[in-house]
Amino acid sequence: MLTWNRYGKSSVRLLKVGRAAGPHDIIDLTLSVGLEGAFEPVYAEGDNTSCLTTDAMKNTVYAFARQDPIDHVEAFASRLVGHFAAKPGVTLARIEAVEHPWTRLPVNGQPHPHAFAQAGADEWTCAVTRSADRTSVEAGVRGLVVLKTADSAFAGFLRDEYTTLPETRDRLLGTSITAVWQYEPGFADYGARDAIRRALVETFAAHRSESVQHTLYAMGEAALAACAGIVEITISLPNRHYLLADLTPFGLENPGEVFVATDRPYGLIEARLSRRRPGGRP
Fold first, then answer.
1. What is the distance, to the nearest Å, from the Cα of residue 215 to the centroid of all Cα atoms in its chain?
2. For the chain, what are the domain ranges?
3. Residue 86 confidence (pLDDT)
């Protein structure tokens, strides 16, 4: 005898970009949908007549996101739960939502109109090595999650028989910055790390990107310029993909507003930039 049941779609990742006149806005949510009700035949008899697919639940989230301004996650979740509660056989519908806050990246002391950082995500790192005659100090930042909603392109790349990626002059660019820099021997002004971090994020925000590699190089150059006391910097930029949700099956256009946030698989772009010394030596 079935005494309780619930089914639904968990961890639906949604990013919505507001592109009204003026600065862009983003809202980043993870939602779960759960339905309880008179679904005994689905379990006991294999009769799926009353079974709303979990794929339809996911699609509903994206379709409603296109039509709803999502000024407040509570209002959006309330609208969703009302839709699902009205389905046949449902006695209880539950929407759980987590909002992932972002803040605008500062550039020249002003908030950037379309570049963001995930609040409180980054950590400072440090490693000090001592040998018989030498102490080396490296420091860095990791988990610095950033996103820009304009000024990012990827086109003109090599194509072969397995290439399906379309070229674009307008895409979202998101990554989680990991950077590690090596200090000159004897350098001790470790407060310079704030200037290095600022150079990394301001360059990410302001750079007109032709690729992740292109932006990485500009960030590395800016970091070296920000602190004369670092010898080299290694930067790792995993490409956090935001895929445009296909809403055409529901009769909806999607002019670059509603995205599926995915984290696997991902491109990983890494490089090291070293300071040039007199005579051309790194």
1. 16
2. 7-99, 103-240+262-280
3. 94
Fold of 7-99: GTP Cyclohydrolase I, domain 2 (3.30.1130)
Give me the CATH code for the 103-240+262-280 domain, please: 3.10.270.10
> What single letter denotes the amino acid at residue 47?
D
d(CA 222, CA 199): 6
Instruction: Tell me how far apart the alpha carbons of residues 277 and 281 are, in angstroms, rounded to a whole number.
Output: 5
C-alpha dihedral over 233, 238, 239, 242, to 10 degrees?
-130
Q: What is the mean pLDDT of residues 143-170?
A: 97
In the block, tokens 């956090």 appear at: 240
Could you give the residue numbers annotated as active site? Answer: 9, 54, 241
154 backbone dihedrals φ, ψ, rounded to 5°: -155, 105
Mean pLDDT score, 11-17: 97
Task: Note the pLDDT tens digit of each residue in 94-105.
Answer: 999 999 999 999
pLDDT digits (tens, 9 = 90+) for 254-269: 999 999 999 889 999 9
The structure tokens listed for 129 are 């090595």
- Output the pTM of the full model: 0.88
Phi, then psi, of 223 in degrees rounded to 5: -65, -45
State the pLDDT at residue 135.
86
Distant-in-sequence, close-in-space partners of 91: CB < 8 Å, separation ≥ 6: 36, 37, 38
Conformation bin of residue 256: beta by default, left when phi > 0, alpha when psi is -120 to 50: left
Average pLDDT over residues 13-32: 94
Instruction: For residue 205, give the nearest of 219, 220, 217 by alpha carbon.
Output: 219
Half-sphere exposure (Cβ direction) of 263: Cα atoms closer than 13 Å: 8
Residue 42 structure tokens:
């689905």
Say if CB 79 and CB 66 are below 8 A apart.
Answer: no
